[in-house]
Amino acid sequence: MGWIESLQRAIDYMEDHLLEDITIERIAAQANVSPYHFQRTFNVLTDISIGEYLRRRRLTLAAKELTHTSCKIIDLAYKYGYDTPEAFSKAFRRHHGITPRDARKGTGKLTSYNRLVIQVHLKGADPVKHRIVEKEAFDAVGMKRTFSLVNEENLSEIPEFWNDVHEDGTDNRLFQLNNGHIEGILGICVNCEPEKGQTMDYWIATNYMGETPDNLAKISIPASKWVVFEVVGPMPTAMQKTWKQIFSEWFPASDYQHAGIPELEVYSDKDPFSPDYYSEIWIPIK
């Protein structure tokens, strides 16, 4: 359960520094993981981004101060990280459904978002079928884009990357090139600045042995022990559900830790919207 405690320590750090301009690097450091892995774990377990959590908590506390003190709205705006009272009022209304002035008058209802406490429910059974494999280093070829972790831009831009690859036919080309032991197209996450944590590389690739084909790039995946989870069901729901089960059930019940090298999502060339669609999640472990 050590990693759950580390995650809670990072959440507590966010709470203790809500009024500061804290970075994802400082937050992730409390959990002793990379910014990317903390961001992904947090998003999978809570269904919201780190930035959204901070925004909700700040606006909840701002509303409490607004209704229980005589603090000026302009002072609250600056206190909770907004450059202008107008920006604060806009965010306040979007979150609570009423303006700060209406809240002060007691008109309308406020939306509170409580401090987050991570609770893991161990159900006594594996969440999904899985197998443990050891694999030598292997190569994959495909396309790579670098995404910013600042403001969690990667969460919205990676799906756009997949759309582009599908529309220009690159996905079909990768399926045809696939000649390695892992069948299908790979989604590969690489934290390329582990110290700074500002960016990550994301690859859409395929396991391939041979000279790098034209207009594609090559990535080498280190040798590792892997836990391979089976995912059955339509995309993206089945994949999202399995990730949540892995982090909330499987990891806490196991003695394994993430090995820190790229993790893989493996997709087949079948109908991704079929209820029987098969895919996999490969997580490096130690």
From TrEMBL:
SUPFAM superfamilies in alphabetical order: Homeodomain-like, Probable bacterial effector-binding domain
Q: Name one Pfam family in it.
A: HTH_18
Tell me which UniProt keywords the record has, alphabetically: DNA-binding, Transcription, Transcription regulation
Q: Name one GO molecular function term.
A: sequence-specific DNA binding
Q: Which residues form the HTH araC/xylS-type domain?
A: 8-106
**InterPro entries noted in UniProt:** AraC_E-bd, Cass2, Homeodomain-like_sf, HTH_AraC, HTH_AraC-typ_CS, MarA-like, Reg_factor_effector_dom_sf, Tscrpt_reg_AraC-type_HTH
Name used for this protein in its record? AraC family transcriptional regulator
**What species does this protein belong to?**
Marininema halotolerans
